[in-house]
Amino acid sequence: MTLPNLLTNKSAASLAHNIVRAEQVRRFESEAAMVVGCSLYELMERAGEAAFDVLDSHWPNAKYILVVAGNGNNAGDGYIVANLALSKGAQVIVACEDPSRVLDGHAKQAQSEWLAAGGELVSFADMEFEGVDLVVDALLGTGVTGPVKESFQNTILAVNAKNLPVLSLDLPSGMNADTGSPLPVCIKADITITFVAIKAGLVTGKAKSLCGILKFNDLGIGPSFFELATLQGKTVNWKRLQPLTCRVPHANKGHFGKLLCIGGNVGMPGAIRLSAEAALRTGTGLVKVFCHESSAALVGATRPELMVTTSDLEEALNWCTSIIIGPGLGRDTWATKQFQAVMAHLEQQHKPLVIDADGLNLLALSDDYTKNVVRELPHCILTPHPGEACRLLNQSINDVEADRYTSCQTLALSFKATSLLKGAGTVICTGSLNVDDRQMFWVCDGGNPGMATAGMGDLLTGIIGAFSAQGLPPQQATVYGVCAHAEAADKVAREYGERGMIASDLLPALRTTINSL
């Protein structure tokens, strides 16, 4: 499949940024291994060796290692790690469901080699944590999609309760590999090393906390695997994007868009001010704010480059080339009036539109006629957080977060718009299918927990609106906007730390970020 022209050639070719569904790995890894002349047991050995290298690098002083092993191939990886650690002089115990059970397939060979080396097996019920320096999690692999059985749940809970360092093999046990959701409990790892390809569930939502540091090893079969497999998407960040086009020497402000920012109801001037100032700092030529008259003075204060108006919305709509609506908009009569006026204008004049915050909430409450106006727009972007997404989808937040890919895809297809779902590992999806009737997801692997503060979403809306106003198509505007936002926050976190970060802190870093590509 041809990817949109977003990534640098180096990034586009990197296997470490490809994400796939777990069934693709199960389906094609043996064939890919065969292509390079690698048997499946040799592949298991490579996985164990790669995991042990991570163990030895990050916990070189671990003398007592507990490996918790399941009954499948993931357990085979664990037995190989155990054997390697034992050969290096560590004290190693393998805990399993039934020490008398002989495993099947290639895991059986790994188990036999462990026992032949004098390795010890204990049951989950008899495992002890006293003196343990590190837990290696080899309980469950990617094939688990339903609730984990009770004995494994109890083992997962026991490991988590001890708060010991944990290295997970392929994925934290108990996690749905495609969604990242616990089933219903999941190991909380310090480091996860995943094999062959990045599984989609590892890079978004709760999984970002459960995986710890995510490492990747293709076991030497990556190129042959991706000749066979179908991508679900790519992870992206600012440094891996194509450089922005240089500005021509004779440029004037009209070349870089006229963005209208609509919001700022009574008592809520800050949100639309953040959006508008972010749009200026992202390079928009002209930015005008339409807000409630009570907010006008505060929106324009200390930022004379912003134009502010409180009357004649139609004139402002005719002036602009792109629109954002929602930050600080509210849901009262004034807000509804402005929202409906924008929809009426766009029914007649299609313009790029970004809908956020209460704009999304009003869209969720709208009739089918209004929703169809949005669906007919060729350049529309929806930017919900999970709470806004649940109202648009008529689901609970838990439902939305349980499968962030499906939630984002459903929004995109329902409104025929480019959609993102905010949160750790923001997911981006377009409202149209590719030539092979599939969706391509983009997942941002930048950003940090310091961004969990008021106004960050408003800032993002302005950044995306700015890229849209400067002529980027919706998908590119959204990917560049999300990545620039995350990179600016990471710069602030590196200099000052995560705690106490506020949205306006990102504005200086945003300016340096967009000039760094």
Structure description:
With 517 residues, the protein is α/β, with parallel strands linked by helices. The chain is built from 20 helices and 19 strands. It has helices at 9-13, 22-35, 40-58, 73-87, 105-116, 150-162, 207-210, 222-228, 269-281, 296-300, 313-319, 333-348, 358-365, 368-375, 386-393, 397-402, 404-415, 456-469, 474-496, 506-514; strands at 18-20, 64-69, 91-96, 120-123, 134-138, 166-169, 191-195, 198-199, 213-217, 233-236, 258-262, 286-290, 307-309, 322-325, 353-355, 380-382, 418-421, 427-429, 441-444. It has a 12-stranded mixed sheet, with helices on both faces. It has a 7-stranded parallel sheet with strand order 4-3-2-5-6-7-9, covered by helices on one side. Helix 12 (333-348) links the parallel strand 14 (322-325) and strand 15 (353-355). Helix 3 crosses helix 4 (73-87), helix 4 (73-87) runs parallel beside helix 5 (105-116) and helix 11 packs parallel to helix 12 (333-348). The longest helix has 23 residues, at 474-496. It is elongated. The model has no long low-confidence stretch (mean pLDDT 95).
